[in-house]
Specification:
The chain is mostly beta strands and 343 residues long. It contains three helices and 18 strands. The strands form two sheets. Strands 1-2-3-4-5-6-7-8-9-10-11-12-13-14-15-18 form a 16-stranded antiparallel beta barrel. The protein has a two-stranded antiparallel sheet with strand order 16-17.
Length: 343
């Protein structure tokens, strides 16, 4: 009997210890650094005559820096926080619309606290990257190193309060109220944006109602086999009072040929109206479109990823790019070699 009681007590102590271990709070530090080489194949490569795709990041000539990214997170039993800091050109571009402090050294990419109200509801308050789109700011989470027009023209970040709700094993819902898009430090306008996301088995329908525009976005993907994945992104944005618009769709087929190498393609068609952005500036009416194909290889060596990339942008308007003779051109071909280390 004494042996049985002793064994029972040991068993109970082990269970309680395991439960304490599972519930114990944790602090972690992760992040990445990235650098790259970029060269135009049919256009000048000096800074005075430089031309590049009208998309974000990876647009500088020669050997160039991306960013250093440090993410600190704390996860408690019911609450936690994330502090995501960025340093370097890519980081500066990511916080471009910060209204006051970006010019004087703002390095905050994300900064938020969260509360797990229940097993199915989490409340988050602070600055968080956008829920729209297939691509993100961090190069570690994108397959292609250069970014799409859809990502570049869409929102980057929001500051506000959101609720993530698990409706069932398959369905999820996010509802949020936020400052104007990309105004991340405080609210200088007094206006607010509203966002919603409905998820089903990895497919997401996103909606953003900003004081100045409305955007609808679909983001998803399918594992067509153990080695072949197809990602999808489609979006449409309309600015109030005829202030411009864009519509686009991008497909991301990716094939893993080995444990260390994957090859992928991004095919994107993007069009804008009423001088909304970079490509429309070349048309008298501000209407233009571009078809961009990006072929990327991804070679993993421990925590280091090497990505050679060939990109072809073909626009509807002369003057979107410049050729080697410094004449207006509709097309641009470029090569990128990126090195990304994550920790």
């Amino acid at each position: 009997m004494k042996k049985l009681i002793t064994l029972s007590m040991l068993f109970m102590a082990t269970v309680l210890f395991a439960q304490e271990e599972e519930a114990a709070p944790s602090f972690s530090v992760s992040g990445s650094i990235d650098a790259y080489y970029r060269a135009n194949l049919n256009a000048p490569n000096d800074l005075d005559n430089w031309t590049a795709p009208g998309s974000s990041f990876a647009n500088l000539p020669g050997f160039a820096l991306g960013m250093a990214n440090v993410v600190m997170s704390y996860e408690g039993e019911k609450a936690g926080f994330v502090a995501d800091l960025v340093f370097g050109p890519r980081g500066t571009d990511a916080i471009f619309a910060s209204p006051m402090y970006s010019a004087t050294g703002n390095i905050v990419n994300q900064l938020y606290a969260y509360w797990n109200v229940s097993e199915s509801v989490t409340l988050t308050m602070g600055n968080f990257n956008t829920f729209l789109g297939y691509e993100v700011i961090s190069p570690t989470a994108n397959f292609n190193y250069s970014t799409s027009y859809l990502f570049s023209y869409g929102p980057f970040s929001h500051t506000g309060l959101k609720a993530d709700i698990a409706l069932s094993e398959d369905f999820s819902l996010m509802l949020g109220v936020m400052n104007d898009t990309d105004l991340t430090e405080f609210n200088p306008t007094g206006d607010y944006a509203f966002g919603a996301q409905l998820g089903f088995k990895g497919q997401f329908l996103n909606f953003l109602l900003d004081p100045s525009f409305t955007e609808i976005d679909f983001t998803g993907g399918f594992d067509l086999s153990d080695d072949f994945f197809l990602g999808i992104n489609a979006a449409s944005l309309t600015v109030e009072d005829d202030g411009g618009s864009f519509t686009g769709v991008a497909l991301y087929p990716q094939l893993a040929t080995s444990d260390s190498f994957t090859i992928g393609l991004r095919g994107e068609y993007f069009m804008e109206g009423d001088f909304f952005g970079a490509i429309g500036a070349s048309d008298v009416d501000g209407d233009a479109s571009v078809f961009a194909v990006t072929l990327t290889g991804s070679f993993a060596i421990d925590n280091l990823t090497i990505k050679p990339e060939l990109r072809l942008d073909s626009a509807s308007e002369d003057g979107t790019f410049m050729d080697s003779d410094l004449m207006p051109s509709k097309s641009l071909s470029s090569f990128v070699l990126a090195a990304i280390y994550s920790f």
